[in-house]
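Ligand: 1-O-phosphono-alpha-D-glucopyranose. Inputs:
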Amino acid sequence: MKPIRKVVIPVAGLGTRVLPATKSIPKELLPIVDRPLIDYVVSEAFEAGIEHVILVTGRGKSAIEDYFDHAVELEAALAAKGKDDILASLRSRQPKAGAISYTRQQAPLGLGHAVNCARALIGDEPFAVSLPDVIIDGAPGALAQMVREYEKTGGNIIAVEEVDPKETGKYGIVAPKSERAGRIFEMSGMVEKPTPETAPSNLAITGRYILQPEIFDQLDKTQRGAGGEIQLTDAMAALMEAQPFFAFEYEGVSHDCGDKLGWLKANVRLSLKNSEFADSFREFLRKQVN
Ligand code: G1P
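Predicted complex:
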């Protein structure tokens, strides 16, 4: 079985749900406590043993490339001022040279199209996909949990979690093959953004995937679906006829940070875990709600 060495992270989205914050900066650079969103998702991938991160970018997203590059002038200024701790902390977060590649999605044709843009960089091996809107607070991280499962099952694995049955229209929803027993189970189908009446369950796809390279041939054939976009969910549903697909309920809490309330909740939850100021922040919050 080939190991999971690469992750595709689509970062070309416009971030319309969090405007005007994202009018002039990519939504992937919105801060959660003291790091941009994308930093959490890339760190989760490295923690899972990923060696190569492929960011599928678009117009107006070049600040993401700067974030992962050496900031030469900033580092020189910090060194000159003797701010060695901050400098060391910045450098410790710097990915290894060559660990991140960028390719562009030249038209906003949907998540399936974005993943297909990474085809040449993935080649013929299984790979992960992580959506940058979704931060999953888990230990180990959700992708590391999935890689551990993959080593036992092979095939394709999709992270899922239960959502309010009224909200199925916001997600891809999976259909378990039989009665669920445990955190990982086979699926019989999946559908993108179904109405509550037509949804096969309330198990939503939460933005982490392990996929076999045959998905690319399927994406080539996939027509526009929900929202007029080429949907990854539709390509996966078709590939399911030829390959095993497992749903995996990870241990952890997810936050949809592409949404204003989700972004706020992520900030509060992760601030309360920050050793530097958790206590005073908790104290502050207590006063606000009384
Ligand atoms: C995408 C996927 C969807 C998934 C969701 C998770 O939708 O297409 O299947 O449930 O991410 O955040 P989007 O939120 O990009 O519309």
